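Morning F.,

Quick status update on the modeling queue. The single chain you submitted on Monday has been processed. Sequence for confirmation:
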Amino acid sequence: MSPTEPRDEIDSEMVRYYAARAGEYDDWYLRRGRYSHGRSADEEWRHDLDAAATWLEGRPFHGRVVELAAGTGWWSTSLARRSALTLYDASAETLDRARIRLTAAGLDAEVGVRDAWAEPDQSVDGVFAGFWLSHVDRSRLDEFVALVARWLVRGGLFAFIDSRHDPDSGASDHRPPEDDLQVRRLDDGSSFRVRKVYYEPAALDSALRRAGFGQIEVATTGRFFLLGSARRGA
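Structure tokens below.
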């Protein structure tokens, strides 16, 4: 598979979705428009988002780090401040936003279009994925975690932030996933199918152990997010 080739029909549709969503993606983080769920829920969201950012700042990333499915680069500035960062995404449109974010922060990083499932072409000290594991089919979770291990040097750090199931997480007009698939609409009314899997911490812990990771920690914020890290074993 080439660095830009999606794995299946749903993966291909997700690439088109995120390309089309690039201009409104950060509305989700910022609770704007259809992503606002009222003062109380939005305050809880911001509290959890701040907690996730603080947690990520505390991960000891260093050296060469790869960020997979980087999107608009919301987390990339944190990583680029303390590592030689390469960020990848299958959507050139979202990466354009990431470049702007990095430049505004006065930070440098390599940026490239690459599917998250593409085989590693180097060994790195760290891998980060934000809101990507929930797009990995349950039957392929072990396969993806093993791929992450192949990116890493021995003892290398893998960290991730992802979604917990909550009705106030997505857009107000999005229905919950059925059989791990969700139909999502954009502001222009277009719709796309997206794979969305809400993994429990125990399932991710087990997958990491099966792939030979150690020092595994998988926790949650108060309501919205999963936070996980692990070290590649021998």
